[in-house]
What we know:
Elements: E1 2-10, H1 16-26, H2 33-50, E2 58-63, E3 66-72, H3 82-87, E4 92-98, H4 108-116, E5 121-126, H5 135-148, H6 153-156, E6 160-164, E7 169-171, H7 182-191, H8 196-199, E8 208-210, E9 213-217, E10 221-230, E11 232-234, E12 238-242, E13 248-253, E14 256-261, E15 264-268, E16 270-272, E17 276-280, E18 290-292
Parallel strand pairs: 1-3, 1-4, 4-5, 5-6
Antiparallel strand pairs: 2-3, 6-7, 8-10, 8-18, 9-10, 10-17, 11-16, 12-13, 12-18, 14-15, 14-17
Helix pairs in contact: 1-2
The chain binds guanosine-5'-diphosphate.
GO molecular function: GTP binding; GTPase activity; guanosine tetraphosphate binding
Protein name: Tr-type G domain-containing protein
Keywords: GTP-binding, Nucleotide-binding
Amino acid sequence: MTLRNIAIIAHVDHGKTTLVDQMFRQSGAVRDNQRVAERAMDSNALERERGITILAKCTSVVWKDTRINIVDTPGHADFGGEVERILSMVDGVVLLVDAAEGPMPQTKFVTQKALALGLRPIVVVNKVDKPDGRPDGAHEEVFDLFAALDANDEQLDFPTLYASGRDGWAVESLEDERKDLSPLFDLIVRHIPTPAPVRDNTADKPFAMLASLMERDQFLGRILTGRIEQGTVRAGTTVKAMNRDGKLVEQGRISKVFSFQGLERVAVTEAHAGDIVAIAGLETATVSDTLADPTVEDALPSLPIDPPTLAMT
Ligand code: GDP
């Protein structure tokens, strides 16, 4: 099974939740397609009820023989470097833009960060079914935005799909037959590179990963999520945590390793370089710390945290 790690960038209401929900329904979830599909719908219904996005931070779908980890990004600027940390886990982004509204200023910050990190975007002009949609205009505005944000030639040469997430289809050209989301899945697999740690063949090295997200769970305590940069992580083993200067923060036993399968976080015995996992068991380690096999001496390079003044509209 091959692997892709992507982030979705979208302005609020441009249809991210609806699209991801359709991706769940149309792809195989790892274990039990039906169950996950139902849960996806449940969560969507719940969300409509509450009127807020509760899309989990990390989810995954399986398309043919590829597992696609999908990481959610904040829809706007943030001040703690979370956008950078999230984007550093992925190898490409899908920018979702409403065909009537075009790109919105609030997503400019996140898009700029993705471009600055060298990620090659896929653009999905969404809600093409809307009577007031103007897909070509929205597409042009995205190009202008990328140019204004100093995108490189490769990034400016972005592939575009036109979609209705609500109706569950995407096409390369508006004249194409509107069938399903397979053009989107295929494009993700084709256009987004294999995760860097897999490309660099780091599987045989000792385990190391950078913690990108931190949350607390009532039962499991601290949970650190990140992409495994090298080696294999196993539940029950001892790891050390180092801060960005390489100073030891703590040494502790991993109680659980979670992989993302559909909407669920599933406990696994081990996970490998390139995959995004959540780790429980450490007590003081935090974001930007390196979690590693005790034999690893140096912390992984981590991104600097942005001063708030850099935040844009
Ligand atoms: P999110 O905030 O980006 O997660 O957006 P949602 O997925 O919650 O969608 C926002 C609103 O747009 C909802 O009322 C959806 O029903 C609607 N919507 C989503 N996708 C489409 C689409 O493809 N076409 C149309 N016409 N409406 C859509």
